[in-house]
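mind reviewing both lines:
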Amino acid sequence: MFTIKAKTRDPKADLSALRKGGEIPAVFYGMGKETTPISISTVEFKKIWHKAGESSTVKIEADGGAVDTLIHEVQVHPVTDEPIHVDFLVVDMNKKITVSVPVEFIGVSAAVKGGLGSLVKVMHEVEVEALPKDLPHNLEVDISTLVTVDDVVLVSAITVSTGVTMITSSEEVVASIAVAKEEVESAPVDLSAIEVEKKGKKEEETPAAE
């Protein structure tokens, strides 16, 4: 489990000044707890966010004690992509929960390498159920089985560890191959012929002088 220290925050505090001071405004809620405004170190959060994602538990140590959470939602700046606000969802470590876990594509597809087509990543995450402590950070999808353009990788091919149950249907397609289309060379256009045709049409449309 990851741990981050937090400070209780005044809901009316100047958020711009807080961010300039190297902290991110955040809240945690859930499990019967009231929404609690906090602030956390920008640097420390970015480190944890990169490693934990939204499927690994994060213990928040605040002034009033500690709570176990998941990173529920992160708002980012539209230009810099820097996190500007974080929602943490409080969880019960003794109860199973369902979350979306990102998939990571590994291996080399012979179909892609041989130029038969391009890889299509149909799914980028799957749903699993587990105790918070057993939730995986990501799940690997091996694309080396994609040898021909007819091959697909199904959810059933994803291996999960003990204590983790796959919720997404096993028959769902995770990855496939899109057939490479040959470029058709068009015949050269005779611009002079077009010009003559237009000129002739114009002359035909011109009424004869009476």
Notes: The chain has two domains: 2-91, 98-179. The CA atoms of residues 139 and 160 lie 7 Å apart.
